[in-house]
Amino acid sequence: MTAATPASQSPAAPAAAGRREFPFEKRHFEFIARMLHQLAGIALAPHKVEMVYSRLARRLRELNLADFDAYCALLESEDGGNEIGFLVNALTTNLTSFFRESHHFDYLAKTVVPDIRARHGGESSHPRLRLWSAGCSSGQEPYTIAMVLAAAFGPELRRWDAKILATDIDTHMIDTARRGVYPAEVAASIPGPLRDRFTRRLREDGEAKIVVEEDLKRLITFKPLNLLEHWPMKGPFDAIFCRNVLIYFDRAGRTQVIENFARLLEPGGCLFLGHSESLYGVSNRFRQTGPTIYRRLP
């Protein structure tokens, strides 16, 4: 996830109804903002009123709803839970790519993997390895993690009990990620040897696509999860990627999530954040070891 593009108009500004397909009043914005915060922990700044309108107007057309009163009523209804995923997806930009912020994956391969080998490699015939992609969007991040692990460990990975958990609040993104099928052009960011090894080309609906190989998919479990609700996993994790997710939470939400990450990470385990995120003033459970890379303190 990455930040949605802000707009300049506030909810108190004139509605400019003549230019709008649907009337959109301050009470609509405040209701949607309140519900999004209550159910997903996402804080909508007041200046994002035009962004909210433009993205949800498309949703009203898809649902054949007459106005925002009807949409707010849907969110409050028994079927509203099914709409929350669409709401989150509409109001956040699921911008992701393979090997995005590549310095994180260099650090994973050159520093984290050797540390894991040193700590756990001699423990048993099947030493345990756990990583988590929290806010995995359409799946490129966990597949990138899997490629890095498979390349760094080589054939040795077969003797490890290695699993990657990938979660997102949006069930539609989880479905996309689980399929592992993407437009062919997104493969350009994958290093050639890894692209040749872990993906194959196909045509789907007349378009060139790539699909992730099954051996890589088997390393990953995709699950829907709201980071501000109960976490069923027990850990511990060797590393957690949570990039461009915390920017959507208020301070209390960020603190809650980071404290839970600290609880589930191994001492010395790594937390990777997005390029505009920081733990400054949020937690003293970590030390920074690189750009948006943190280690959990003992």
From TrEMBL:
<dbReference type="GO" id="GO:0008983">
    <property type="term" value="F:protein-glutamate O-methyltransferase activity"/>
</dbReference>
<dbReference type="InterPro" id="IPR000780">
    <property type="entry name" value="CheR_MeTrfase"/>
</dbReference>
<dbReference type="InterPro" id="IPR022642">
    <property type="entry name" value="CheR_C"/>
</dbReference>
<dbReference type="InterPro" id="IPR050903">
    <property type="entry name" value="Bact_Chemotaxis_MeTrfase"/>
</dbReference>
<keyword id="KW-0949">S-adenosyl-L-methionine</keyword>
<dbReference type="GO" id="GO:0032259">
    <property type="term" value="P:methylation"/>
</dbReference>
<dbReference type="Pfam" id="PF03705">
    <property type="entry name" value="CheR_N"/>
</dbReference>
<dbReference type="InterPro" id="IPR036804">
    <property type="entry name" value="CheR_N_sf"/>
</dbReference>
<keyword id="KW-0489">Methyltransferase</keyword>
<feature type="domain" description="CheR-type methyltransferase">
    <location>
        <begin position="17"/>
        <end position="298"/>
    </location>
</feature>
<dbReference type="InterPro" id="IPR026024">
    <property type="entry name" value="Chemotaxis_MeTrfase_CheR"/>
</dbReference>
<protein>
    <recommendedName>
        <fullName>Chemotaxis protein methyltransferase</fullName>
        <ecNumber>2.1.1.80</ecNumber>
    </recommendedName>
</protein>
<dbReference type="InterPro" id="IPR029063">
    <property type="entry name" value="SAM-dependent_MTases_sf"/>
</dbReference>
<dbReference type="InterPro" id="IPR022641">
    <property type="entry name" value="CheR_N"/>
</dbReference>
<comment type="function">
    <text>Methylation of the membrane-bound methyl-accepting chemotaxis proteins (MCP) to form gamma-glutamyl methyl ester residues in MCP.</text>
</comment>
<keyword id="KW-0808">Transferase</keyword>
<dbReference type="Pfam" id="PF01739">
    <property type="entry name" value="CheR"/>
</dbReference>
